[in-house]
């Protein structure tokens, strides 16, 4: 493209905001020109605001260091400087709904990492390889908001990324019952071991709200648009039940999943379906898209977080240990990077899809 789109990040100083900053460095389509955060950080340079709490493995990009942080509540000022925004604000759910809606109503598209709008009926919640057609709902959302170009689109919860892609690849075999336990990294809570020393050598068998998200969000992704209701109607199968456990890992969510199918696939058919599964991001070679969306690992002890979490720059999904089960039909282990594919990276890929579909353009 001749000129990059101007990007704002609201909630730029938190862990997900930092991940956006890091991943967008040298992006071929997008340039971070505006950063916004709480009134406490407003007026500082970005470097000053994150001093002592920059959590990424790479340094703060030079192009962002000296940007002056705006007050996230100064919506008109932020919106006037950008073509669209990524949202990673840390507020109550109601406050997030309000501020994201207000940004959209300035004719500024909002691509959000937050959960607040995931069940707003006309807001698409998208994994670009799985349900890119859900962006068709945006026309109804714009009618409701009274906008011509402004809208909100969201990515799903990080915990579902390690098993939902596999189930999507297997839709032809009609999975109808799933049990999944997720083992989730502490960065999913926006923490490091410095912030949360009690997690060292520890497991916490509870993550607030996570099990409901893990059971329900895949069904919305597999749902369909009802033109009469102007809403996305969730699918009804497969039935999913989950447990979500916090484990002493910095990055990477692992899932142990058990599946019943109405069809009777062979192991090779299941593996072939995984490795051949792809979507618009691969077909159009979007900048952040993994060339291989899902890899299947044949070793008994894979996937492992230390070895495999960064597959395809953290944007690919690793599946292994696929084997027949004595109670369910098949079981497997899945692994995804929770802050790349599961958070900021997934939102950036969604923004690339929206640009390719002409929903995001220069103002």
Sum up the structure in keywords.
363 residues, 2 domains, alpha/beta, Dihydrodipicolinate Reductase, domain 2
What's this, in brief?
With 363 residues, the protein is α/β, with parallel strands linked by helices. The protein has helices at residues 15-24, 46-49, 62-65, 75-80, 93-104, 138-145, 164-169, 210-221, 267-276, 280-283, 305-308, 340-356; strands spanning 5-10, 30-37, 70-71, 84-87, 110-112, 152-154, 175-184, 224-226, 231-233, 239-246, 253-261, 294-297, 317-324, 330-336. The chain is built from twelve helices and 14 strands.
Describe the structure in your own words.
The protein is of the alpha/beta class. It has two domains: 5-157 and 344-356, Rossmann fold (3-Layer(aba) Sandwich); 159-336, Dihydrodipicolinate Reductase, domain 2 (2-Layer Sandwich). 27% of the residues lie in helices and 21% in strands. It has twelve helices and 14 strands. It has helices spanning 15-24, 46-49, 62-65, 75-80, 93-104, 138-145, 164-169, 210-221, 267-276, 280-283, 305-308, 340-356, and strands at residues 5-10, 30-37, 70-71, 84-87, 110-112, 152-154, 175-184, 224-226, 231-233, 239-246, 253-261, 294-297, 317-324, 330-336. Strands 3-2-1-4-5-6 form a six-stranded parallel sheet, sandwiched between helices. The radius of gyration is 20 Å and the shape is globular. Belongs to the aspartate-semialdehyde dehydrogenase family.
């Amino acid at each position: 493209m001749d000129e990059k789109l101007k990007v704002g990040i609201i909630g730029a100083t938190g862990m997900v905001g930092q991940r956006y900053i890091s991943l967008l460095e040298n992006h071929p389509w997008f340039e971070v020109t505006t950063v916004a955060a709480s009134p406490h950080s407003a007026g500082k340079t970005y470097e000053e605001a994150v001093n002592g709490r920059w959590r990424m493995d790479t340094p703060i990009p030079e192009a962002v260091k000296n940007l002056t942080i705006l007050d996230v509540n100064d919506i008109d000022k932020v919106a006037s400087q950008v073509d669209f925004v990524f949202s990673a604000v840390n507020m109550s759910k109601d406050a997030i709904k309000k501020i994201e809606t207000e940004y959209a109503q300035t004719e500024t598209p909002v691509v959000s990492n937050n959960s607040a709008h995931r069940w707003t009926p006309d807001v698409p919640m998208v994994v670009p390889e799985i349900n890119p057609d859900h962006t068709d709902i945006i026309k109804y959302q714009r009618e409701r908001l009274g906008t011509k170009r402004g809208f909100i689109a969201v990515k799903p919860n990080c915990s579902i990324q390690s098993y939902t892609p596999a189930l999507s690849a297997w839709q032809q075999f009609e999975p109808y019952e799933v049990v999944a336990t997720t083992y989730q990294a502490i960065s999913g809570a926006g923490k490091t071991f410095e912030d949360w020393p009690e997690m060292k050598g520890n497991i916490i068998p509870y993550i607030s709200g996570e099990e409901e998200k893990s059971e329900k969000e895949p069904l919305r992704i597999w749902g369909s648009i009802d033109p009469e209701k102007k809403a996305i109607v969730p699918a009804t199968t497969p039935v999913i039940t989950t447990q979500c456990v916090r484990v002493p890992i910095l990055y990477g969510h692992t899932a142990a999943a058990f599946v019943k199918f109405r069809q009777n696939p062979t192991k090779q058919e299941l593996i072939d379906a995984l490795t051949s599964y792809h979507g618009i991001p691969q077909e159009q070679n979007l900048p952040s898209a993994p060339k291989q969306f899902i890899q299947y690992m044949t070793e008994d002890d894979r996937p492992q977080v230390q070895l495999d979490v960064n597959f395809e720059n953290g944007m690919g999904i690793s599946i292994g240990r696929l084997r027949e089960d004595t109670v369910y039909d098949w079981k497997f282990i899945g692994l995804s990077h929770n802050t790349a594919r599961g958070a900021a990276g997934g939102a950036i890929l969604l923004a690339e899809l929206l640009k390719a579909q002409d929903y995001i353009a220069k103002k």
